[in-house]
Amino acid sequence: MVGAERFSNYTGYDLAFRFSGDHKDNKCVDAVGRRRTRVIAIDALEQPGSTQYKPESLVREANKAFCGFRLNPNVEGEMGVATGNWGCGVFGGDVEVKVVIQWLAASEAKRAFLLYYTFGLEALEKLGPFVEWVELRKWSVGEVWSRVVEYSGERVRGETRDGFFEWLVPLLYENGLGSGQQI
């Protein structure tokens, strides 16, 4: 959807979501007067359980995110992506795996940035330190993807119950490093 305009302020998320007054949208407009905003809708796997860790499910979700985030350079220029816990609330997806899939998809789609709203989810307290850890090692999208696939295989086989961040970077949990929440 091209040119979406915000009219309302709000508080909360999910069942706590509430209207909190009018909003004046001051975003820039394009050559035809539309707000420089794009809204995408991407379906998610419903209650995927362990099937979300199967290679075909990972590829499905990564492809959907990539297609949704893909740039049209003639129209969008240097726009970033603002997103959140796609497919993780009532849909039951693994929030740590989903955030990494979205990060990789936005990177491959050449988005200028990814602004990730955690909505205070405890499972994402280590997102900032995790991203810093990956960036310090200068890992490519392919290297991170390989770790997601490896982790997911271990989940399917029942070899780990750890979250992805803890599985990949146990030091983040042992040393209690950081609590950043945005990429």
| Biggest sheet features | 2 strands, antiparallel
Number of helical elements: 7
Q: Name the structural class.
A: mainly alpha
Number of strands: 4
Dominant shape: globular
Radius of gyration: 17 Å
Unreliable runs: 177-183
Pfam family, one: PARG_cat_C
Organism: Castilleja foliolosa
Protein name: PARG catalytic Macro domain-containing protein
InterPro entries: PARG_cat_C (IPR046372), Poly_GlycHdrlase (IPR007724)
Describe it.
- The protein has helices at 55-69, 73-76, 95-108, 127-136, 141-156, 164-168, 170-174; strands at residues 8-11, 18-22, 81-83, 114-116.
- 38% of the residues lie in helices and 8% in strands.
- The two termini are 24 Å apart.
- By secondary structure, it is mainly alpha-helical.
- The strands form 2 sheets. A two-stranded antiparallel sheet has the order 1-2.
Brief write-up:
Helices cover 38% and strands 8% of the residues.
Lay out the secondary structure.
Layout: E1 8-11, E2 18-22, H1 55-69, H2 73-76, E3 81-83, H3 95-108, E4 114-116, H4 127-136, H5 141-156, H6 164-168, H7 170-174
Keywords:
7 helices, disordered C terminus, mainly alpha, 4 strands, 183 residues, two-stranded antiparallel sheet, globular, single chain, PARG catalytic Macro domain-containing protein, 8% strand
